[in-house]
Amino acid sequence: MNFKEYSLEKRRLLLELKNILPLESLKRSLKDSHSRRRPRPCGMTVHTAIGCVFDCIYCYIGDMGFPTDRVQPYALTSLELVYALVNNRYFVPSLYGTYVAIGSVTEPLATPSVRERTFEYMSSILKYLKNPVQISTKQYISEEIADRFKALSRRGPISILITIVTLDHYRRLEPKAPSPTLRLESIKNLCKKGLKPTLFLRPIIPGINENEATDIMLEAKRAGVASVVIGGFRVTRTILRKLETLRFDTREIKKRLKGKRLLGNRQVSVPYSDIKRELVEIARNIGIVPLPSACCANTYNIFLTSGIRIPCYGLCYTNMCLNCPVNCIEVLPSIDEEDIRYAIARIVSSKIDIHCNKGLLMIITRSKRDRNRILSKDHLLSVLQTIYRRRIVVRAE
Where do the domains of the chain lie? Predict the structure, then answer.
């Protein structure tokens, strides 16, 4: 896909959906945040529900203002959600476009009604947009639900992340979530259907659960996983207080924060690169492919399930690559300079030069004024970055 093809596909989708949806649905979609939000490094986060009742102590959605005592399906219908995404200026439809990530502010399989909304959203995204979909969950996945995932995966790639971060402390850390034993059973059920779930070993909480990581990976490997995402811990003042109330030793967390103050609801990432390096090597020794991010898990799942090698949406290969079998750097899209000039001509008419290497695409303008005008259109640069899978830099000569 190039920029011209992207523009035509967006117009086609908009026309198709306008002919299906009533006027009230079109208006509701355009008012929704999915039509405006910037994607995250893992892709466009799609909310299939609001809130969560699993009450995980390390969770930050309460600090973000989301309810932690109830969960309800998201208000948009699946087609309204698709229309909102197509109208989002940052979103690129297609298998080679923006990744879709489900489960960031909720448990997407929490209740039967939430689960139905989640499957409706995934089905419509895969049918109309074709984008790779990822879901992260702690909920138990029965063989019946695994069958539904399998049926849906025939439409397009679905990356399933199963979160397990403790075997010993789950009753305190995740008091209302299904047990790790049930989540390992979920992995087995998905693998029986030929799916490729990934262990989501996040968050690693220094001083609390890193010593369990090896056992978790071993159990997940026995259950059938082939890959693991090892992720960090974002702490808030509320989360730290909850951990201490439950008599967890938080000295290592505070030591790694190095005096950083936890103010209000602000989330602060706890440095853990030394722990991650060690766990990456352990994963390799166990025989599981370590992945540095959820984005990489989506990329690796596409490769495992279809044989197609697509570079990471989040450009993970530029700064955190762990050399998984996809080898993103070797499958970058070809640069079409005429296509890039066509896109930039929407902003400035003067001449530009284009230079690129493996991970960088540089646009050089004739003046600072032109550079600033291009930089002001961050949605356009985001689209080009997604299409060409390179970090874009704009400079004046």
Answer: 1-131, 337-396
Beta bridge partners of residue 161, listed in sequence order: 136, 198
Structure tokens at 92: 């690129």
Per-residue pLDDT band for 358 (boundaries 50, 70, 90) equals confident
Distance, CA of 258 to CA of 249 (rounded, Å): 16
Spatial neighbors of 271 by CB under 8 A, at least 6 apart, are 256, 258
pLDDT digits (tens, 9 = 90+) for 196-218: 999 999 999 999 999 999 999 99
Cα–Cα–Cα angle for 121, 125, 127, nearest 5°?
115
Burial class from Cβ neighbours inside 10 Å (0-12, 13-18, 19+) for residue 223 reads: buried
- pLDDT, residue 171, reads 97
Asked if pLDDT for residue 264 goes beyond 90, the answer is: no
Q: What's the confidence (pLDDT) of residue 200?
A: 99
Q: Residue range 25-48: average pLDDT?
A: 98
Phi, psi for residue 199 in degrees, rounded to 5: -70, 125
In the structure encoding, which two tokens stand for residue 256, read together? 């790694």
pTM recorded for the entire structure: 0.96
Q: What is the 3-state secondary structure (H, E, C) of the chain?
A: CCHHHHHHHHHHHHHHHHCCCCHHHHHHHHHCHHHCCCCECCEEEECCEEECCCCCCCCCCCCCCCCCCCCEECCCCHHHHHHHHHHCCCCCCCCCCCCEEECCCECCCCCHHHHHHHHHHHHHHHHHHCCCEEEEECCCCCHHHHHHHHHHHCCCCEEEEEECCCCCCHHHHCCCCCCHHHHHHHHHHHHHCCCCCEEEECCCCCCCCHHHHHHHHHHHHHHCCCEEEECCEEECHHHHHHHHHCCCCCHHHHHHHCCCCCCCCCCEEECCHHHHHHHHHHHHHHCCEEECCHHHHHHHHHHHHHCCCCCCCCCHHHCCCCCCCCCHHHCCCCCCHHHHHHHHCCCCCCCCEEEECCCEEEEEECCHHHHHHHHCCHHHHHHHHHHHCCEEEEEEC
Residue type, 246: L
